[in-house]
Structures are given as structure tokens and as C-alpha cells.
Amino acid sequence: MLRVSAWGTSDRGLARTHNEDCFEIDVEQRLYLVADGMGGHRHGEVASRLAVDTIRGFLGRVAGGDATMPSLPEPRLGRQANLLKMALRLAHDEVMRAIRADPRLAGMGTTVVALSLDGSTASVAHVGDSRAYRVRGGALQLLTQDHTWVNEQVTAGFLSHDQARIHPLKNVVTRALGGESRLEVDVLEVEVEPGDLYLLCSDGLTTMLSDDEIERYARDDGSPQQISRALVEAANRRGGLDNVTVVALRTEGEEPQPNP
Ligand code: CA
After folding, report:
1. Is residue 260 part of a domain?
2. Is the model's pLDDT at 257 over the cut of 70?
3. Which of 128, 133, 181, 219 is most buried, judging by how many CB atoms fall within 10 Å of its CB?
4. What CATH number is given to the structural domain containing 214?
């Protein structure tokens, strides 16, 4: 089994009064999560924590044999990717349920990006504008497509990536857990190699730093702890206009097998 080292750093930033991001690293389940909550009166914190806890809890119950997959899986995806997708849908249902139970929570929602490692396959699922990147051979690659209005404009050729990053409407997400419409979750599976570095981050990082700048920090030989901290500090030096969260994980070759 591939060895994995991981570290998460989350910071309020310099402009916000509280931190509505949250992250989770579940070493046993090899599950890594970042969520970026939204909603007034600190309700974003409620939404992001509820989503992360629901995803982790569901996958933990399945692993423990206490839950099964409640709907037919997508045949193009493996079991773990299907489970992860289902977990994000359940998290959406939980956020909606919380809003119905307490109308003061109306309007709360959250993004989420999740990576689940099963053998040498990483399943990556996301909703909203929290991102997953992979750094391999020193090159940064974005694995997710933001569910945002500006990204739709980039895809259509109306905005460049750099224009999108500083656009006044850059924060408008078109999908979120807790949003009104039926939830579409994007999932992909990637084969992991020893030496890969994966970054999960909230938009507080990616609106402050360009991909080239993120790559410069991430291709260092530093530990996941050093890299996640350096990225968060860099976002704050740039202005820290938003909460910023980075989970970094590196795969490090096979774990030694015990002698028979
Ligand atoms: Ca944010």
C-alpha cells in the first residue's frame, strides 16, 4: 500500500471575522476533504462542517459494513468513486434537511472537494469552486473544473484565466451543497504514482495566487506541512481577502510489508 503523508492548514485570512472553511484528514479511511461554507450569521461554518462530517461518517459506516450504497452505481466509475459521489449527495441532503428544520439557516451552503485513496486509485469529487491539483514531475495540473459563472465564461472563450481570477463576479458559484437545484457532482478517478503531491484548497488560495505561483511553492521538496503552510502564508501576504485552506498529501512509495 502506498504510504501517504498529509497536512491541512486553514486560516481566517486578514479580512474576514471568522473562518467558514473546514477540512478533514482521515488517515484510516485515506479520505481528505476541504469545504468552504457560505451564508450569513456564521451559518457557512455550520454548512461546511455538516458536509464534511456527513461524507466522512457515511464512508466510515460503509467501510465498517453498517451502510450500503443506497442507489445504483455509475458503471463507468469504480466502487470507491461511486461511494464518494453518493457521500456528497448525502451531504447535500443533510444541509437541505438542516435548513428545513431551522429556517434561520436558509441560504447556507458549502462547496466541497474530496479525495479518497483506494489502492493506487484516487477518486476526486467536487461541487463548487474548491479545487484539487496534482503536482507530478514538478508540474501542477488542475484536476477539477470550478462550478462558477466566471469559469463558464472562460470555457466559452469570453474571459482568460487571469481575468477570471480577479473578476468582480469570481465568487459566484453555480453549484453548491445546499443549493436549490438538483445536485450534480463531478467525479474523476486518477492513478496515483509515488512522489505525487495532491492539493485540495478553497478559493481563498486560488483567488490570491495564480497557478504558476502555486506551482512554485508546491514543487519544493518540502513536507505537506511546509507546503500547505507556505501556501496559506503566501495568500495572506497577498492580501488574505478570504478564508484560506490547503490540504496537501504526498504519496511516498510502498509501505514495507511485514515478513511472513
Ligand atoms: Ca471562500
Report:
1. no
2. no
3. 128
4. 3.60.40.10
How many angstroms is it from 21 CA to the middle of ligand 1? 7
Going from the Cα of 36 to the center of ligand 1, the distance in angstroms, rounded, reads 6
Q: How far is CA 3 from CA 161, 217, 218, in A?
A: 35, 22, 19
259 lies in some domain:
no
Q: Is residue 246 part of a domain?
A: yes
* Structure confidence by residue, pLDDT tens digits, 7-63: 999 999 999 999 999 999 999 999 999 999 998 788 999 999 999 999 999 999 999
Residues 87, 71: Cα–Cα separation, whole Å: 11
State the total domains in the chain: 1
Q: How far is the CA of 110 from the centre of ligand 1 (A)?
A: 9
